[in-house]
Write a structure and sequence with these properties.
By secondary structure, the protein is an all-alpha fold. It has a domain of 71 residues. It is 69% helix and 0% strand. It is built from 4 helices and no strands. Helix 2 packs across helix 4. The longest helix is centred in the C-terminal third of the chain and has 23 residues. The model has no long low-confidence stretch (mean pLDDT 92).
Length: 107
């Protein structure tokens, strides 16, 4: 894929939209909570599923809309970052198992 520059205004608007959706689904992002290992697996699994649900499919046969490109970039980056966090907590395999079960149910 070639490099695409996403206008800052489009990016900021999309980030704000996703932030509002996240807070509606999970509550305030700024709260500080301690989690058990199992709760972390559930939290990160839910976060990754949140981003998967919002990742648009890019049709390579059409010129995609800038909003689609932006949403895809934000969502796929968020998923990568979530897996980086799970790696640091040694829970990646458990999270991938939960996410994999969700993917199987939602094909």
């Amino acid at each position: 894929m070639t490099g695409i520059t996403i206008p800052a205004e489009v990016h900021q608007t999309m980030i704000q939209t996703f932030r509002q959706e996240y807070e509606l689904e999970f509550g305030n992002m700024k709260s500080c909570v301690q989690y058990t290992r199992d709760q972390l697996v559930e939290k990160y699994s839910n976060d990754i599923i949140f981003w998967h649900k919002r990742t648009p499919v890019i049709d390579l046969d059409q010129v995609p809309d800038m909003n689609v490109i932006c949403a895809h970039a934000i969502c796929t980056n968020a998923i990568r970052q979530m897996y980086n966090l799970t790696d640091g907590r040694n829970i990646t395999n458990d999270v991938k198992f939960v996410v994999g079960k969700w993917e199987q149910l939602n094909r």
